[in-house]
Amino acid sequence: MTYSEEWNELKDTQIVLSNYQSIKSIRQHASHGNLGSAIQMNIGEGNQHHKVDESALMNKTQLKDIVKKQLEIARIVIRATFHALYDEEHLIHNYKIAHSHKKVHHIQHAALIRKIQSQMLSIANSSHSKDGYSLIPSTHAQQLIQLYASWLTDHVQKNDRELTTLLIGKAPESELERDISVPAELIVPPSYKSFLDSDNASLQDKKLFNMMIRVMKLKLHTSH
């Protein structure tokens, strides 16, 4: 791992932690600052309980700041996931793992990326309205957690464990236990490149992938 790669990885971690704390602080400040207004609203409406729109409790600057931080975290999640899959496929190729295993991994990796792509486009779409920035609902985070939890159960604990067994003896220990550095640019795994270039991918699949790159403001890695 080069110095620049280590710095980028540290930077991503710091951004996620910093953004999380900042988002939490902004939400608490907005909630406490407008608690009296919310109580008055409930009293004025016959003491009925209404779900208060959290976006309405923030000024435009707070709302813009929190949404930009949410999207920045989402971009890091995309880059980290794509690169983890890319690195795994790199090991499969370099150490000549049987084609049957390679095929299973490629199919499942491409399927995961399609699901992540769909989730991220939904997140980007919910981040704005006709009036400007809009707070991204927490349901998106819950859906992502469920998606990754299913991936851990269905793929990592089964297929990746089997892959590890196959790699032991073929790859040096240093290769299997090294830290993975996530570059600033988005590296697309060969599995998804192959999918997009295949007859199985529709024009819509390609359109949605390019849309995710654009709306999430990702920079594609280009090999020279």
What does this entry look like structurally?
- The chain has eight helices and two strands, in the order ααααββαααα.
- Helix 1 runs antiparallel to helix 3 (60-94) and helix 4 (99-126) crosses helix 7 (190-197).
- The relative contact order is 0.13.
- It is mainly alpha-helical.
- This is Hemerythrin-like domain-containing protein.
- Belongs to the hemerythrin family.
Nutshell version of this structure?
71% of the residues lie in helices and 2% in strands. The protein has 224 residues and is mostly helical.
How would you state the average pLDDT, rounded? Answer: 87
- Give start-end ranges of low-pLDDT stretches: 38-44, 47-51
Largest sheet: 2 strands, antiparallel
Q: Helix-strand pattern, N to C?
A: HHHHEEHHHH
Helix content range of the residues, please?
over 70%
Relative strand content? under 5%
Q: How far is it from the N-terminal to the C-terminal residue, by CA?
A: 20 Å
Morphology:
globular
**Structural class, from helix and strand content?**
mainly alpha
Write the layout of secondary structure elements.
Layout: H1 3-33, H2 35-44, H3 60-94, H4 99-126, E1 128-129, E2 132-133, H5 139-167, H6 173-176, H7 190-197, H8 203-215
Antiparallel strand pairs: 1-2
Helix pairs in contact: 1-3, 3-4, 4-5, 4-7, 4-8
Keyword list:
Hemerythrin-like domain-containing protein; 2% strand; 224 residues; metal-binding; 8 helices; metal ion binding; mainly alpha; iron; two-stranded antiparallel sheet
